[in-house]
Amino acid sequence: MRPHKIAIFLCSLALSISFARSDYLVVSRSATIKADPAGDAQVREHVGEGVTLILVEGQQTNGYYHVQAPTVGGDGWIYRTLVRRYKGQPDGGPSPPPSGTSGDTTTQELLKAAATIKAETCVDGLTMDECHQQYPGGCTKSDTPRYDAYLNFLKNRMPDPTSIPRRAIDRQLLEHLEQGIPPSLTKYNHATNVNAFLQLGEGQIHSLIGYLYYATGEGPESCNCALGTKGTADFHIGVGFDPFPARSTALDALRRGAELSDHRIAPNESLNLKQQSMVVEMTPHYREQFHRSWDLHRVQQVTGKQVKVVGQLMIDNYHADTSQDCGLAGHAPNCWRASVWEIHPVTEFYVCTSSAPCAPDSASWKRLEEYP
């Protein structure tokens, strides 16, 4: 290589390094640094909210930033919507990760959010990534927003998909959770009751084994910045403890994508499917980062199958009244959900491939993206 070309190359390299190191990132919610820029890549390190990360290069790859790993050494990749990017060098260098156990970190994260998250008005033209980066508690188009921002914050959390469940949800535990709901709970005061819900395990990873009763797509919601474009809505899924309780005609219709109001499903069947199932939700932001092959049709095709669901336990207080929650004493005859508690977001989803019911540790469970 000629001398002047070498000089140009070195100059360009120096500018590239300078650009990368002139910016830094701050983690905006609990996240993972991965070995490669892919959702299914090996996790190198867990980082909590507020941790400062140094960029290795300025450009993104597959939506991931290339960063220095703060404690394990070397480098790794973190998804763009989990961090905020700032110009210049951080004061004092990278910040250390939070101390204590992952459960302690979760508790501190939720207590902080409960004290600070507020309802907001959306700006126009948001993308899904911009929504979750700019509005961790969601937003609406209203100039006077009224919704539970802390509830939305919980819905939008991004737990590590490799997290091990703290407990398995069964009928007894679900009944215990319902009994622990404070009488003062309303649609808008989730944060006021944060300590009571933390004691019940909210924010921790749980599992649920049951049978998939139905799966439908939600419409625009404040947790997703009221976006209505394709791929920006939750999947609302009902999982019951008993085998599928409706006729084969209804099962076939639901597997083909029918709504519960479809004429092939009798009204009493539709109501029973809802009343006997716990709601679990796959969120668009989580699907985008960790499970891009999860689509509604794929979920609907396993209706009636035994499934194992893993994800965050949370209470959707928007539905915490006797007209909706069949788990509450004195509930209405036409209540439409077994409990106001949910697994939300779903972090992993498995389908039993055995002809007999699968035990919790069976080798016959297959991840949804690998089924059939």
Q: Could you give a short description of this structure?
A:
The protein is an alpha+beta fold and 372 residues long. 25% of the residues lie in helices and 23% in strands.
Write a structural description.
With 372 residues, the chain is α+β, with helices and mostly antiparallel strands. The chain has 2 domains: 3-87, SH3 Domains (SH3 type barrels); 149-370, OB fold (Dihydrolipoamide Acetyltransferase, E2P) (Beta Barrel), CATH 2.40.50.140. Helices cover 25% and strands 23% of the residues. The chain is built from 10 helices and 14 strands. The strands form 4 sheets. A 5-stranded mixed barrel has the order 9-10-11-13-12, surrounded by 5 helices. The chain has a 3-stranded antiparallel sheet with strand order 4-1-7. A two-stranded antiparallel ribbon has the order 2-3. The longest helix is centred in the N-terminal third of the chain and has 19 residues, at 3-21. The radius of gyration is 22 Å and the shape is globular.
